[in-house]
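Read as amino acids, tokens; as here:

___
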Amino acid sequence: MSDSVPDSDSPGEAAFASLSLPPELLGNLGSLGYHTMTPIQAASLPAMLAGRDVVAQAKTGSGKTAAFGLGLLTRLTVSSFSVQALVLCPTRELADQVAGEIRRLARALPNIKVLTLCGGAPLGPQLNSLAHGAHVVVGTPGRVEEHLRKGSLNLATLDTLVLDEADRMLDMGFQAALEAIIGETPTSRQTLMFSATGLQGEGAEGVRAIAEGFLRDPVNVAVSETHDETSIREHFYRLGDESERFEALRLLLQHHRPQSSVVFCNTKRETDEVAEALDQAGFSALALHGDLEQRDRDRLLILFANKSASILVATDVAARGLDIDALDAVFNYRIARELEVHVHRVGRTGRAGSSGVACTLVSEQEAYRLERLGAFLEQQLVMEALPSRRALSGEPMAPPMATLQLDGGKKQKVRPGDILGALTGDGGIRGDQVGKIKVLERSAYVAVQREVAKAALAQLSAGKLKGRSFRARRVSR
């Protein structure tokens, strides 16, 4: 590594206008409300725009997607309808989010096509899309390697390769796939690698090996944590007895009343048990773990992201790669087995300038783990008393939205605008009562305010989209 950018502990104050970006991209950034760069953007974009390879240490929520998105879009030759940029991500959810952000950044550029290639989705539509060409491909290593083997993806014209959350991809066993994919790319490409660990510290060996083997004289960029005590309030609660654990969680949920929160458990079994107990106690909770089928996982994440469910109870493995906006609180049902994982959990709240709460339950048997965590964080961890039952009032908060599902999707040419129009047409609900709309290959999900769910369902069932009637139903789980 010949160059490095030192850690930055203060927010980046540089404006995007100070960069040599195309006018269309700059104008669009302004319309998106992006004016001042985050620390990772300020540290990495000048090197990217100069054509340098970059290894960047950056966590989810730091603005890294916009950084490498702007870098790769600046290098595109729009008139050449070939794959010029490839972004590899560890999970389908992250790939979808990255592709969506790149499309937003590129909307002022004419006819930019961004294609997503992920496992868990049918091959046929991907093959058809590849046959029509794309400028940018975002995908998971396994599926991208499969398309390379089949000859349906050609990377001969690739100009920019991005490895997003490279450490996670290595943890998940994708090293051989990464090496095979990189072997199919031109040696003249620019390579941008992002990871939570960077090149230093525990777990960085694999990242360092990839950097040394496949990057050319990269600039090493690291920024300090984007969270501090003012953005995340972290609390630790001592349990008198193991049997108090669930009741303590219930009290904390009642006390903080988060609209959107994640409860982290250490095992799949505990995830199911806690989610079921929360449901029985009147909360709206979903269990997310590795035993779920991909379609069930997709449905649960849609319900959580559109605020039709308030609580996601998850294992760390299942939550990898999730980029959940506006998370009010994180609850550690138990201290994570690995101390770095605890930091990642807590870092999921209090992002993008908002404040967040992290609560950790600790039994007497976990005292040794708490001591290790305090040493790891270099902090004196202070135990607090649980909220008094007498001080709490009211029922558990109901989620503000409900979700309706249509049995038509992209395959039937259904678009979000069609669904919005059907809901708000004659005698329909107001546009501001409609939330997120997600259109999949053969189905679509739309969130509406809970109090108008019945009317919205009747409106969809009675109306037509694209001149056709589609069956609609309310989704509970």
Remarks:
- The radius of gyration is 23 Å.
- The chain has a mean pLDDT of 84.
